[in-house]
Amino acid sequence: MSISIPRGTQDILPGDVELWQQIEQKARELCEKYQYQEIRTPIFEHTELFSRGVGDTTDIVQKEMYTFEDRGGRSMTLRPEGTASVVRAFVEKKMFGLAKQPVKLYYMGPMFRYERPQSGRFRQFVQFGVEALGSNDPAIDAEVISLAMNLYKEMGLKKLKLIINSLGDKESRLAHREALIQHFQPRIGEFCSDCQNRLKRNPLRILDCKQDRDHELMKTAPSIIDYLNEESKAYFEKVQKYLGLLHISFEVDPNLVRGLDYYNHTAFEIMSDAEGFGAITTLCGGGRYNGLAEEIGGPETPGIGFALSIERFIAALKAEGIETAVNEGIDCYLAVLGEEAKDYSVGLLQQLRLAGFSAERDYLNRKIKAQFKAADRLHARYVAILGDDELKNNVIHVKNMATGEQVEVALDSFVAYFQKLQ
Ligand code: HAM
């Protein structure tokens, strides 16, 4: 029987995983600089967290969730995104009471969506995301956006496009909603059945419909920008001003509709416009979600964040021709010959490693020439040769692979000698 990997998932093998690690490390370093701390939440949650009494009308929540009943008959869902979980933890663990405010968190881990797999779209993908909870200052919107942009830039990406929009506050959104209903209602019969349902529940989602996107009413639909009240407008202007101060260029796109329902005020996406990136160009998405904590049973708390997937990050790096992390090589390869030397090398290898060196030895009974080849493959800086003869004389030969120089060292002081070399 041969069993294959599930559709839309990936094995990340050595050789590829180094780039993942490099991105993850960069993300952690940047979060440290920006003062975001890591949070780890479960991979499955109560379904209700995401559907919120079917308050969420998006495809992600309605059509793409991996939902199952556990053995106790409870409905559970593999998380399709991280924001709801972070906000749940924030509410449940009363983080709103912490001395350090706003609460700035980041996470990294797999998310699950039952989507049609294609290049850049997976059923399991890894998101890196940040959430800042407790501040209504537009400067933090700009900070969150700049963190994402800087992560991409530090990894070498150049062909980035930032698109922003404002979805306004509750009042603005209600006015816009009414306008959308007025606009679509007379001809709603020409739209798909999903859109017909969306009309009353969440007409904004019609604008995001893939099936009806070419309908003429889509182009003439009322734009949220025209329905922003003074406060929302002022907020959006401030965000733009701060982005300007950070020298981050952007485009305002009044048609930017995010794929989740909890957004208000700032919404943004970062796209790649590298040639050959493929059909899916969105690398990162985020925005403000001021009502979410309340919906989950917490106090009124403003929040903003973003998430990006490492898969699309890597695709963008490849599209821009940015190479993988370099193989840094190992400090020492122990070439061993003879039974006694092999036994001795077990302890010696351990001493080297505990002293902080990366070290490897032969485990395949290879001849000395083949062991040197193996050392080369690992880019070993030194090869230490230990045969039964050396062992008898209490010495070891150490070869510098860059210069070819070889010296004899007393076996007892080998690790100390190695430490001095560095
Ligand atoms: P989202 O736009 O649904 O937002 O996803 C964010 C990012 O996750 C996307 O821009 C993309 O990089 C990646 N992504 C989404 N679906 C897939 C997929 N099927 N395969 C590969 N990558 C994918 C959220 O998830 C929000 N929680 C973001 C957020 C945080 N908003 C506020 N805070």
Automatic annotation (TrEMBL):
Family: Belongs to the class-II aminoacyl-tRNA synthetase family.
Lineage top rank: taxon: Bacteria
PROSITE patterns: AA_TRNA_LIGASE_II
A Pfam family: HGTP_anticodon
Domain Aminoacyl-transfer RNA synthetases class-II family profile: 1-317
Enzyme Commission code: 6.1.1.21
Gene source species: Neobacillus paridis
Keyword Ligase: yes
GO MF annotations in UniProt: histidine-tRNA ligase activity
TM region(s), chain numbering: none
Name of the protein in question: Histidine--tRNA ligase
Gene3D superfamilies named among the record's database cross-references: Anticodon-binding domain, Bira Bifunctional Protein, Domain 2
InterPro entries from the UniProt entry: aa-tRNA-synth_II, aa-tRNA-synth_II/BPL/LPL, Anticodon-bd, Anticodon-bd_dom_sf, His-tRNA-ligase, HisRS-like_core, HisRS/HisZ, HisRS_anticodon
Catalytic activity field: tRNA(His) + L-histidine + ATP = L-histidyl-tRNA(His) + AMP + diphosphate + H(+)
Chief subcellular location: cytoplasm
Top EC class of this enzyme: ligase
Keywords: Aminoacyl-tRNA synthetase, ATP-binding, Cytoplasm, Ligase, Nucleotide-binding, Protein biosynthesis
Compartment(s): Cytoplasm
Record note on quaternary structure: Homodimer.
